[in-house]
Amino acid sequence: MFHVGETLVYSSTGRTSYVKVKEIFLNEDNQLTCKVVSASGDELTATQEQLRDPNLPDIAHIPSNIPDYKELATTISDDQLKAIANPVQLSPLQEEWLALHERLWHLPQSIMFRMVKAGFLNKKFLKLLNNRPPCVSCLFGQAHRKPWRYKSSTEGTASTLRGNKVSKPGQTVGADQLVSAQPGLVPQEKGALT
C-alpha cells in the first residue's frame, strides 16, 4: 500500500518516471486511485497497477551492460557476467541445426546425427558432429537429472546425512515427529484423507 508523500515509479503507455503521491482516493468505480505529481509538476491520476516501489525489481527492466548486471545479480562472478552479456554467436549452419532440432520436438542430438548418417537429414550437418550447438531448452530440461541423493562434499568424498564426524549415538539428534491428540489415531500425510 502506498502513502501520501511517498516517491514511486509511474509506468503508463511507454512512459516511466518518478512521481510523488499527493492524494489517495476511491474513484467512481470503487477502484483505489492515486493523484500523483511528476518531477515537472504535472498532476496525473494513476491506478495502483501503474505505480510501484522504486526499490522493488521490475520485470520489464532488462539489463544491457555489465554494471547493470552487477547491480541486479550479486552472486554471479565477473566471468559469468561476461558470458551472459556476450553470448557466443552461432554460425548459420548451427542456427539451422537448432531450428530443425526444435521442429523435431527437441529430438536428442545423437539420434539426429544418426538420421544424418542414414540419409534422412541433410549431410551438411555432419560438419557439426564435433561442434554441436547447445540447445538451452534441453539443458534446462535435463538439469533436474543431477543426482541429489549422493552429492559429494567439498573434499570430494560422498556426504552422508549424519556427517562424517559422528561416531557415537547421541552426537546428533534429528527426528520428525507427528503428535496425535486422539489415542490410536495415526496422522495421514498422503492420499485421500479419511
How are the SSEs ordered, and which strands pair?
Elements (H helix, E strand, L loop, with lengths): L6 E6 L2 E12 L5 E7 L4 E5 L3 E2 L13 H7 L5 H8 L6 H12 L5 H10 L17 H7 L52
Antiparallel strand pairs: 1-2, 1-5, 2-3, 3-4
Would you kindly provide a brief summary of this structure?
With 194 residues, the protein is α+β, with helices and mostly antiparallel strands. 23% of the residues lie in helices and 16% in strands. It has helices at 66-72, 78-85, 92-103, 109-118, 136-142; strands spanning 7-12, 15-26, 32-38, 43-47, 51-52.
Structure description:
This protein is an alpha+beta fold and 194 residues long. Among the domains are: 7-52, SH3 type barrels (Roll); 58-87, no CATH class; 92-141, no CATH class. Helices cover 23% and strands 16% of the residues. It is built from five helices and five strands; from the N terminus they run βββββααααα. A five-stranded antiparallel sheet has the order 4-3-2-1-5, with no helix packed on it. Strand 1 (7-12) and strand 2 (15-26) form a beta hairpin. It is extended, with a radius of gyration of 29 Å. The protein starts with 6 loop residues before the first strand and ends in a 52-residue tail after the last helix. The model has no long low-confidence stretch (mean pLDDT 78).
Characteristic key phrases:
alpha+beta; 194 residues; SH3 type barrels; 23% helix; five-stranded antiparallel β-sheet
